[in-house]
């Protein structure tokens, strides 16, 4: 989460949305150990201990959004959603995804739909595949699907994607162990 939002305390934001009114498990009961960093424009790299680092990249999206690149144990995992390119693909995004073992990327729109949604802050699956190819990504997972697209439609689009990038899948509920 970025500094565009006027928030004093990041932990409160996460805790708030996990209150019992909205979610059955509170933040304190989560199994992981959390440390909260509010992204700022001066710092884009965080150490994750001896073995890895976490990089961030600011996205073009209304209200702000960030991509995350986790390098740990010799593997690279990149997460990019809520991201709109301009007329051309954003070079910074390609660089950020370089050689990722797994890229989770948003594909809210089809290539045909994208021009109708300029300024909404999202990408097409075609752009996702272009980024993955140019960045030399090994495996591509597409997510952030438009709520207007049903399962049948998405399965058809997934097959189109796999014709262009073999190791490409649409994310499904329950998916795990992706690398
Ligand atoms: Zn969005």
UniProtKB/TrEMBL annotation:
Coiled-coil segments: none
Pfam families tied to this protein: Lactamase_B_2
Domain Metallo-beta-lactamase intervals: 52-143
Name of this chain's protein: Metallo-beta-lactamase domain-containing protein
Listed InterPro entries: Metallo-B-lactamas, RibonucZ/Hydroxyglut_hydro
């Amino acid at each position: 989460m970025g500094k565009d939002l006027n928030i004093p305390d990041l932990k409160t934001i996460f805790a708030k949305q996990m209150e019992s009114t909205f979610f059955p498990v509170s933040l304190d009961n989560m199994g992981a150990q959390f440390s909260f960093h509010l992204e700022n424009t001066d710092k884009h790299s965080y150490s994750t201990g001896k073995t890895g680092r976490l990089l961030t990249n600011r996205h073009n999206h209304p209200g702000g959004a960030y991509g995350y690149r986790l390098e740990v144990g010799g593997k690279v995992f990149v997460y990019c959603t809520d991201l709109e390119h301009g007329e051309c693909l954003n070079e910074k995004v390609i660089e950020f995804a370089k050689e990722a073992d797994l890229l989770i990327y948003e594909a809210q729109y089809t290539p045909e739909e994208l021009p109708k949604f300029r300024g909404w802050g999202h990408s097409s699956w075609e752009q996702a595949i272009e980024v993955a190819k140019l960045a030399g990504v090994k495996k591509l997972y597409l997510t952030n699907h438009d709520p207007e697209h049903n399962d049948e439609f998405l399965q058809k689009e997934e097959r189109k994607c796999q014709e262009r990038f073999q190791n490409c899948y649409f994310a499904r509920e329950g998916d795990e162990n992706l690398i």
